[in-house]
Amino acid sequence: MAFSTTTANFTSQPFSFNAPSPTSHVKLLITPTSASPFFGSTRKLRLPSSSIFNLHRRSGTVVGVSQVVKEKKPKSTLNLLITKEEGLELYEDMVLGRAFEDMCAQMYYRGKMFGFVHLYNGQEAVSTGFIKLLKQQDSVVSTYRDHVHALSKGVPARAVMSELFGKTTGCCRGQGGSMHMFSREHNLLGGFAFIGEGIPVATGAAFTSKYKREVLKEADCDHVTLAFFGDGTCNNGQFFECLNMAALWKLPIVFVVENNLWAIGMSHLRATSDPQIYKKGPAFGMPGIHVDGMDVLKVRDVAKEAIARARRGDGPTLVECETYRFRGHSLADPDELRDPAEKARYAARDPIAALKKYIIENNLTSEAELKAIDKKIDEVLEDAVEFADESPLPPRSQLLENVFADPKGFGIGPDGRYRCEDPKFTQGTAHV
Amino acid sequence: MAAIFQGVGAAAALSSLPSNSFDSNKSVFSPRRSFSVRKGASFAVVRSDGTVNLNPKGRRTQQLIPNAVATKADSAAASSSSKPGHELLLFEALLEGLEEEMERDPRVCVMGEDVGHYGGSYKVTKGLAKKFGDLRVLDTPIAENSFTGMGIGAAMTGLRPVVEGMNMGFLLLAFNQISNNCGMLHYTSGGQFTIPIVIRGPGGVGRQLGAEHSQRLESYFQSIPGIQMVACSTPYNAKGLMKAAIRSENPVILFEHVLLYNLKERIPDEDYICNLEEAEMVRPGEHVTILTYSRMRYHVMQAAKTLVNKGYDPEVIDIRSLKPFDLYTIGNSVKKTHRVLIVEECMRTGGIGASLTAAITENFNDYLDAPIVCLSSQDVPTPYAGTLEEVTVVQPAQIVTAVEQLCQ
């Protein structure tokens, strides 16, 4: 069944949400309308900027898409964005992410894990806000900063911690490490060390979803793929190539930019001709949305719309989340370049503290219950570390396993047998 | 492991092919036999326990079809209509293999530039888009790195893509994805994701295509762990390798050659595949083992004609599997002849021949009576001028000289 390649209908409109001109849609973006105190805390921190095109400052934040789209929100005095259960789920997930990363740092400095470890502290709102809306069959593709994406997607903390310790019980049998978290069960497709590398893979996963629906006739296949990557990646060719292909074929994918302003020591503003990444979406024919990535409720709002759009078959969305990493690029990064004032500003916008404040102020639950969650997470982590500590290291025989799905790929040895048929094969060497 | 040797007939069919017969409209096999036929050695199945079984219906049911190419040897006349099978050109054989696999398994899909509506720049995917639709035969934008990565992502999530590089050289742009993801993801995911992708395309030195379109990528890719590389050289093994590659759970890179697309051969009607890890015995012999692959096979066979007239008896093996090497077939040959000549189109430095030399020396040093000779292309970017281009690759005369020196 042939499918028609639609030419972009977006050429005249930079935004699919009825924004007739650049300046007017900017105004639309900057006006928050909710009376919730949660939004208030971020409003105070917006930098005053005389012009949206003043590239030396961050421009105003965008309120959730739902304010722009003509959705009718019921006018109630409370105007809550989440239920109690949702609030607790979000809170627990973010606390798990934060506590896990803090534990990683501890374990690293105690010599339990090595190499490059990239921590996610401060960015939890993006992972939780997006991934908690997914189904199990939806896919997530991440970068080297993938521990929390794995946890949010459902990979047990034990499996991730074991993987970091390099034990055979890790989610990748110890063969992947910090930068290569994979889980077939939870549809976590990695974990990539080179930036931009995962974006085509995510595009492929979205392609499979479309293929299943249209060629294999699995009519209910509406799996969505999320691709997470950073601001540095947005200057990479693979990013643009995949934006093109995803929009061209209307693939069910959401491109989530975790713009934390820094690519190791390279400021986003120094590396990018036009730092407003969300504007690059419409150039390829998809909506581009900028959201406050320190606010999990805003992220969740935008994510709902973007994921629904993909599920409907309307194609991809580019979401730029303004966020910040509280720690250095990796545990080896002394983090001396960033301005302490900037760090302090974002620390004040800690997403976990903000959500906690929202929950308490709106009486969703008591402080005691939140503290109970904190304690529970501490126990989960202790268990994870204990499990990882006690797990065995991979034996020598594991070296040659999993190189090939079909080990006949190691070839035929001089004796005429396939090398893999030799019972001593895995104790030997791998050159062919 | 059973190994099947192709019969002498295979050599007979190919021996008459002069080296400059690759002009697009003309390559036809003429089955003249110009050297002696080895008696009783049509083909044999050698089992891993050492017993030889002349009944080919042994271990591998996939290889029930004996050396189809050898059917030529049985008749001195031109291909007669009483023979089973059908005649086609190499690109049609690839197309047939691809089409059959797409019919067999709906998850097989094709991605590449101009594979759909255009039918492929070498017509390997002609007609497939009409038959299977635009999504199964996907015309991609010019973004090799990304669409190869997309193929890898699709393979991880359940599809079986065949990614075409319009020219092998373009896949250099996809090296990132091929090396990092294609080769490694099965391992770094601890075996959770398989990548049953086939990456194929024409490479090699053509007719004055210029340096960038004349690249041989097998040497660059050979170090990547986790992939297999095969090179086809006849319509028979082209179709067989294409099908085997698609059915394999491993990522496979299939190297085709620009000048071989119009070779004609009669191939069986029945379903068959060629084993990905095995080499092909083209012409059994006694004096010297000549190891080659892809286009150089024809230069070697051309030289073999001359050599036979001069009284030599070369054993010619088309190694087919560039990674891993079939050390069994190669080893048996070395043990018999004690002299090895490698003829390849790769560059001298770091090429397939270099690896093969190392592998043979490591494993069969005691059986060698002379150092291994490796004839490769010059380490130069392929020049445009025809006279220079001719000198860049190995010509039959050089092969004859090398054998004469080796056999002194």
TrEMBL record, chain A:
The pyruvate dehydrogenase complex catalyzes the overall conversion of pyruvate to acetyl-CoA and CO(2). It contains multiple copies of three enzymatic components: pyruvate dehydrogenase (E1), dihydrolipoamide acetyltransferase (E2) and lipoamide dehydrogenase (E3). PANTHER family: PYRUVATE DEHYDROGENASE E1 COMPONENT SUBUNIT ALPHA (PTHR11516:SF60), PYRUVATE DEHYDROGENASE E1 COMPONENT, ALPHA SUBUNIT BACTERIAL AND ORGANELLAR (PTHR11516). Transmembrane segments: none annotated. GO terms for biological process: pyruvate decarboxylation to acetyl-CoA. One of its GO terms (molecular function) is pyruvate dehydrogenase (acetyl-transferring) activity. Tetramer of 2 alpha and 2 beta subunits. Residues 93-394 form the Dehydrogenase E1 component domain. It comes from the Eukaryota. Keywords: Oxidoreductase, Pyruvate, Thiamine pyrophosphate. Its cofactor is thiamine diphosphate. It catalyses: N(6)-[(R)-lipoyl]-L-lysyl-[protein] + pyruvate + H(+) = N(6)-[(R)-S(8)-acetyldihydrolipoyl]-L-lysyl-[protein] + CO2. It comes from Hibiscus trionum (Flower of an hour). This is Pyruvate dehydrogenase E1 component subunit alpha. Its EC number is 1.2.4.1. It is an enzyme of class 1 (oxidoreductase). The keyword Oxidoreductase applies. Gene3D superfamilies: 3.40.50.970.
Automatic annotation (TrEMBL), chain B:
The keyword Chloroplast applies. InterPro entries: THDP-binding, Transketo_C/PFOR_II, Transketolase-like_Pyr-bd, Transketolase_C. Its main location: plastid. GO terms for cellular component: chloroplast. It is an enzyme of class 1 (oxidoreductase). Keywords: Chloroplast, Metal-binding, Oxidoreductase, Plastid, Potassium, Pyruvate, Thiamine pyrophosphate, Transit peptide. It holds the Pfam family Transket_pyr. It catalyses: N(6)-[(R)-lipoyl]-L-lysyl-[protein] + pyruvate + H(+) = N(6)-[(R)-S(8)-acetyldihydrolipoyl]-L-lysyl-[protein] + CO2. Residues 88-263 form the Transketolase-like pyrimidine-binding domain. GO terms for molecular function: metal ion binding; pyruvate dehydrogenase (acetyl-transferring) activity. It comes from the Eukaryota. It is found in: Plastid, Chloroplast. SMART domains: Transket_pyr. Its cofactor is thiamine diphosphate. Its EC number is 1.2.4.1. The pyruvate dehydrogenase complex catalyzes the overall conversion of pyruvate to acetyl-CoA and CO(2). It contains multiple copies of three enzymatic components: pyruvate dehydrogenase (E1), dihydrolipoamide acetyltransferase (E2) and lipoamide dehydrogenase (E3). Tetramer of 2 alpha and 2 beta subunits. This is pyruvate dehydrogenase (acetyl-transferring).
